[in-house]
Amino acid sequence: MIRPKVKEIEEWLREVRRDFHKHPEPRFKETRTAAKVAEHLRSFGLEVQTGIGGTGVVGLLGGTSPGKTFAIRADMDALPIQEETGADYSSCKPGFMHACGHDAHMTMALGAARVLASSSELWGLMNGQVKFIFQPGEEGGHGAREMISDGVLENPKVDRIVATHVAPLIPFGTVGIYLQEACASADAFYINITGQGAHAAYPHLSRDPILGGAQLVTAIQSIVSRNTDPSQGLVISVTQFQAGTATNVIPEEITIGGTIRALNEDVRKLAMSRLEELVQSICQAHGLSGEISFGDGYPIMRNHEPISRFVAETAAEMLGEDKVIIRQPKFGSEDFAYFLERCPGAGYELGCSNEVKGITHMLHTPRFDLDEDVLPLGVELYLRLIEKYFK
Description:
This protein has helices spanning about 5, 10-20, 30-45, 100-120, 120-125, 145-150, 210-225, 265-285, 305-320, 335-340, 375-390, and strands spanning about 45-50, 55-60, 65-75, 125-135, 160-170, 175, 180-185, 185-195, 200, 235-245, 250, 255-260, 290-295, 300, 325, 345-355. By secondary structure, it is of the alpha/beta class. It folds into 2 domains: about 5-180 and about 300-390, Zn peptidases (Aminopeptidase, 3-Layer(aba) Sandwich); about 185-295, Alpha-Beta Plaits, CATH 3.30.70. An 8-stranded mixed β-sheet has the order 1-2-4-3-5-16-6-15, sandwiched between helices. Helix 2 packs antiparallel against helix 4 (about 100-120). The longest helix is centred in the C-terminal third of the chain and has 21 residues, at about 265-285. The chain is elongated. The chain starts with a helix and ends with a helix. The model has no long low-confidence stretch (mean pLDDT about 95).
């Protein structure tokens, strides 16, 4: 299942991953991380570019003749979470940890680069080149968009791109595939409602923004239940409601915030338009003034189905058909979507949980960890995808 050249570097993979894990860096501040990535890539003999899209790094490995370009993307940034795993390789930076597996993603891409560069029978098959893209700012920073703006998909032009993401919701030894829609769009909304404050004993002298805001929160759920086709997929969550400073004062102003997540672009636009209408109509009914704005949202992540099936077929050959899981779209967002808007490709998942080893915690939590046996498995799958593509 895993070739000898990958087995030979298993201990190195663990060391690299643990070094990244011990030294997490937040979005667009991945200076040490980027330097380490570049150092590894240069040691393998790759052509290296740094400072792409901020702190991004690109390694290019050419084959025996010109041709198409296959790309692998790995994200680099960590999350502002205090680690509670108690592992020997726990974060040494208070308040930050690799709680989303980016340390593993970088390690698998580096492992693939190392084996590919050192194996003449592998890169000798390549009529073209492989581009290794190490992306900053995935966690809310639109880092993929920044790298694209800096030309990461050009010179040479990328013809196909893939990315893996570790997944604790599926067990170690399995691969999760999204045939088309993989992740929802994500648009934050911010609502400000202004009325007339008053003493709580004299509510008739107020124009109460809390009352209007409460009705708005309830009405927002009608967008999902009454304005859109249930089969199309839409989630609207109100996550913030900030109002008042004292129990005996009706405030003059409140703020409401949340997110809209959709799997269909028309539904996404409808939800945003309908939310604007509700803010204005409910505020008008209560004699209030309402304003709404939207954050810099993430697009829907859509895999290209032929490439999803290419990954699924390759994974089945490697692990067995019973180890390939066709996944339903999820409502988390992923800025790999920006790459897929511009280049054929697919993102897929590698199961990283292991109940026997007690590794069961979710991504983005203080106790998240992964079964490190996923590292050589991820490297092997990358190599097989590259081999199969160029053959």
